[in-house]
UniProtKB/TrEMBL annotation:
Keywords for this protein: Cell inner membrane, Cell membrane, Membrane, Mercuric resistance, Mercury, Metal-binding, Transmembrane, Transmembrane helix, Transport
CDD domains, per the entry: HMA (cd00371)
Protein role: Involved in mercury resistance. Probably transfers a mercuric ion from the periplasmic Hg(2+)-binding protein MerP to the cytoplasmic mercuric reductase MerA.
UniProt main location, coarse: membrane
Subcellular location: Cell inner membrane
GO molecular function: mercury ion transmembrane transporter activity; metal ion binding
Organism: Chryseobacterium scophthalmum
Bilayer topology term: Multi-pass membrane protein
Family according to the record: Belongs to the MerT family.
Transmembrane segments: 46-63, 90-112
Record-given protein name: Mercuric transport protein MerT
Record keyword Cell membrane present: yes
Domain HMA, chain residue ranges per copy: 128-194
Length: 200
């Protein structure tokens, strides 16, 4: 029983560890605390290992649970009811939770409030398009966090963020917002704006 508890606990912990880098940006948006977003981004390189460990640990736990038990020919045996910590129901619940945690990056966007860009573009507006190189983004949750913070600025027309490319392409009215202000907004998320390049 102790072995089963340890396996279940280890499986859940590795699943949590593998998704922490993606969960914290979403929590940061919801809580309005930008700085915590990149706290666990250092875990991202280890994510494949955590996923592998979770699968192996839970796989072994299921093997232990489903393998045929040795029959002991003893008249003194009694059929004791298993408590919940020993049941397949608990292991099944932990497995479902682990799968949800591991797949969190694929549905993280559901929890992100939609940002509305309400910039007013007039004939006197001076629209500029700039690419910002950003360090530290690891999943779609990071993208949404950066986009949310940039969109709060005045004069923002369009924001496209990609964690895979490590950049943000921002179209804005430079009479209302400057490149420095956008960089400051990016840095406030906990990620780092390394450089900017004017596209048009």
């Amino acid at each position: 029983m102790k072995t089963e508890k340890k396996l279940i606990g280890a499986g859940l912990l590795t699943a949590i560890a593998s998704s922490l880098c993606c969960i914290t940006p979403i929590l940061a948006i919801v809580a309005g605390s930008s700085g915590i977003a990149s706290t666990f981004s250092w875990l991202e390189p280890f994510r494949p290992y955590f996923i592998g460990m979770t699968v192996l640990v839970l796989g072994f736990a299921w093997y232990q649970k489903l393998k045929p038990q040795q029959q002991i020919d003893c008249n003194c045996e009694t059929n004791q009811k298993q408590n919940f910590m020993q049941t397949k129901s608990l292991l099944g619940s932990i497995t479902v939770i682990s799968v949800l945690l591991l797949s969190f990056p694929s549905y993280a966007h559901i929890f992100v409030p939609k940002t509305k860009i309400t910039a007013i573009v007039t004939s006197t507006s001076k629209i500029q398009k700039v690419e910002f190189t950003i360090k530290g983004m690891t999943c779609s949750g990071c993208e949404h966090h950066v986009k949310t913070e940039i969109s709060k600025l005045k004069g923002i027309v369009e924001v496209i963020v990609s964690y895979e490319k490590g950049n943000a392409i921002v179209k804005f009215d430079n009479k209302q917002t400057s490149i420095e202000q956008i960089e400051k907004a990016i840095n406030s998320t906990g990620y780092k704006s390394l450089k900017s390049k004017i596209i048009s």
